[in-house]
Amino acid sequence: MTLKKTPLDTEKLDRTVADIQRDWKQTYRERALKLFPWICASCGREFTGKRLKELTVHHKDHNHDNNPPDGSNWELLCLYCHDNEHSRNRDEAAYGGLEPGARAPSSTHKPFADLAALLQKKNEK
Questions:
Q1: Sorting pLDDT into bands at 50, 70 and 90, what band is 112?
Q2: Given this model, what pLDDT does residue 46 score?
Q3: Residue 89's domain is classified under what CATH number?
Q4: Spatial separation of the C-alpha atoms in residues 84 and 78, rounded to whole Å
Q5: What is the total count of domains within the chain?
């Protein structure tokens, strides 16, 4: 059994390689803008024209090297919501955060605990 060699189409191969290189040179922002509607995922504002520059790509896992081609680690956020998202994470890191679903401890201070006794004393005078 002999294998029949087909001539290699170098032009097609060159075009394919050039297309792949062009796609990989695109920034993840350019790719995200092609994948997702131009709407902030947090506040729902829509962006077009000159205001499109106010729409940013947020990495859900905060790892800027994690850029899957399907965009599963990205969401588009406006400048304000993106800043808010990172501020919340900085605050949580600085002050300690609760586990998801956990409740904050209730206050142990009881400002009116002895009110009845204080009023009783005042009335006795």
A1: confident
A2: 96
A3: 3.40.1800
A4: 10
A5: 1
Residue 118 included in any domain: no
N- to C-terminal Cα separation, the chain: 117
**pLDDT tens sequence across 29-49:** 888 999 999 999 999 999 999
CA distances from 93 to 10, 79, 86 (A): 54, 21, 11
Give the CA distances from residue 73 to residues 27, 65, 80, 109, in Å, rounded to whole numbers and listed in that order: 14, 10, 20, 43
Domain that holds residue 81: 26-97
Contact 56, 77 (CB under 8 A): yes
In a domain, 68, yes or no: yes
Residue 58: pLDDT band by 50, 70, 90 thresholds? very high
Please report whether residue 119 resides in a domain: no
Sign (positive/negative) of CA torsion 25, 29, 31, 33?
negative
Query: For residue 35, what are the contacts with CB-CB under 8 A and spacing of at least 6?
Result: 70, 71, 74
